[in-house]
Design brief:
Elements: E1 2-6, H1 11-17, H2 20-28, E2 33-40, H3 53-70, E3 74-81, H4 84-94, E4 99-105, H5 118-125, E5 130-135, E6 152-156, H6 161-167, H7 170-173, E7 179-186, H8 196-209, E8 213-220, H9 223-234, E9 238-242, H10 248-252, H11 257-264, E10 268-272
Parallel strand pairs: 1-2, 1-4, 2-3, 4-5, 6-7, 6-9, 7-8, 9-10
Antiparallel strand pairs: 5-10
Helix pairs in contact: 4-5, 5-11, 9-11
Length: 283
Amino acid sequence: MRAIYATDLSAASRATIENETCLDCLERIGVDEVHLLTVVPSNVHAGMPGMNLEQRRERGLKEYQSVMEEAGFDVETHIVRGTPHRRINGVAETVRADMTIIGSRGQSPLENRVIGSTARNLARTTVVPLLVNRIEREAEEPEMFREHLFQRMLYATDFSENAERAFDAFNYLRHATEEATLVHVQSPKEELELDPQSELDELADTLEQWDIDTRTVIRDGDPSEEILDVEESVKPTTTLIGSRGRSRLRRLMLGSVSEDIVAGAKGNVYLVPPARTAGYNLL
């Protein structure tokens, strides 16, 4: 598997890249090639006083490259200019990445409403599965909240086509997964022609065959709120969820469940987008 590892070379990014447990989890699920990527903002120019960012980032990437190569990964580095989420998606398409990884500090409720962060923008537009590594927020030497990335999974489903696509990720995640909680949230407007408990039990049987200890949960109410409440209760290392679409209109619609989970989850989030569309224009 080929992964994009997007970094701003901050202490938070260093916490994820230098975490041996995190790297071991990636190796277990089949990641063997990593593209380290950092984006220089387009409004920063080399001639600006004290703004030798590209040289500093090149040195930083070389340090990270050494760490990851020592861990056994094949590594390439990329320094690009532009809008972070667009350039990250662009490189992911160019190298045909299987996943994108980005670190994100925990945020306050107020900050969670600001839809300007790279993680939130990637949650809307990512072209490949997106792993958001949650990092401590108020620490000089931050660490990951839950470093065993895929050990305890929370999978949220509405039984849609893309929720099924997200569940398919267990085909490789299972090599690092020991426990899983499967949750479905029923809303008053929902009209399903299937029995949620039977559907969850069928999914649970699949995971049990892979020796993953699995439980199921059905809730009523607002999907985002209920999923986050279950996450707070079971404390998974990562929440797995599918996103809806990537249309221009969809990007402007705030408050989608996937974006809410990326913003509000205490632990890591693994977001699976719809299948790639041939000829899709990222810009």
